Amino acid sequence: MRRFWNWEPPAPDTSDPAGSDTSRVLRINGVIAAESWFDDDITPALFASELAAGSGDVTVWINSPGGDVVAAAQIYNMLIDYPGHVRVHIDGIAASAASVIAMAGEVVAMSPVSMLMIHNPATLAVGDADELGRAIDMLAAVKESIINAYELKTGMSRAKLARLMDQETWMDARAAISMGFADDYLTGSRTPPDPDDEDGEEPDKQKPWPPTSRNPAPLGDAASGVCFARKPAEQLLVAHLTDTPPTTPPPAPEPTRPAGRKVVDLYAALINHTH
Q1: What is the pLDDT of residue 79?
Q2: Is 240 left (phi over 0), alpha (psi -120 to 50) or beta?
Q3: CA 254, CA 30: separation in Å to the nearest integer?
Q4: 116 CB-near residues (< 8 Å, 6+ apart)
Q5: Do 62 and 89 form a contact (C-beta atoms < 8 A)?
Q6: Model-level pTM?
């Protein structure tokens, strides 16, 4: 039976006299759903059974486009309530509902080539005006609940988070770290590139990789990362977050005033004309 996620036993710790490590690894790959017909989605029920199958610290690897926000909220709550330490690694994409799960990590580490995306919740609604109105109210409430998770992790204002969600914001690792959605880079023990490939820079003068600070570059620095949104209004928001002046659109042409006289004026002059 195919599953997109499963626990992996940790590698044995040879430095530990006991010869074992109590941490566990969970990989989440695929869509998050309330239930699954073929066990090929991540569901709260399956997640709960696996989470309760052991103890110790947990490392959750995420590569998911998202899915059901209520199911994601349940998994988020399980990780928040878990008695051990929870570390989240994003090695592909944590989009939509998957980004909510990522916020449960005490430490969130992102691969330099991974992405994180946040946006407004969406649904399908059918019915009259009252039914559609209730759907709108429901989506507004769901959005506020999602902002709760982002606010706890980032410390960002709710208004700014709401704007980022409105514009469907995509972030690379550097931007996510700068904005507080992530804490560190996922690089393992890799070293910087070959110094011969740099522009004549001496090896001892190269900048270390990954940067040691939580914010490798200030948010106002345009080189701090990529923060992109699909909708046109996002350009103003990205410019505000990166202090990059937006491209000023050309001024709209003034409407041309019609030449000649109005018909009503001509008619009035005609009937008032003395013979």
Answers
A1: 97
A2: alpha
A3: 52
A4: 90, 93, 94, 95, 99, 102, 110, 170, 171, 176, 181, 182
A5: yes
A6: 0.68
Q: Measure the CA angle with vertex 217, ends 116 and 246; round to 5°.
A: 75
At residue 183, what is the residue type? D
Per-residue H/E/C for the chain: CCCCEEEECCCCCCCCCCCCCCCEEEEEEEEECCCCCCCCCECHHHHHHHHCCCCCCEEEEEEEEEECHHHHHHHHHHHHHCCCCEEEEEEEEEECHHHHHHCCCCEEEECCCCEEEECCCCCCCCCCHHHHHHHHHHHHHHHHHHHHHHHHHHCCCHHHHHHHHHCCEEEEHHHHHHHCCCCEECCCCCCCCCHHHCCCCCHHHCCCCCCCCCCCCCCCCHHHCCEEECCCCHHHHHHHHHCCCCCCCCCCCCCCCCCCCCHHHHHHHHHCCCC
- What is the Cα–Cα distance from 110 to 72, expressed in whole angstroms? 19
Measured distance CA(206)–CA(222) in Å, rounded: 20
Q: Is there a contact between 116 and 99 (Cβ–Cβ < 8 Å)?
A: yes
Confidence label for 174 from pLDDT (cuts 50, 70 and 90):
very high
Q: Which residues pair with 61 in a beta bridge?
A: 27, 89
Output the six-digit token pair for 103.
């916020």
Over range 239-244, report the average pLDDT. 67
Length of the chain: 275
Domains of the chain by start residue, with CATH: 5-242 (3.90.226.10)
250 exposed, middle or buried (CB, 10 Å; 0-12, 13-18, 19+)?
exposed
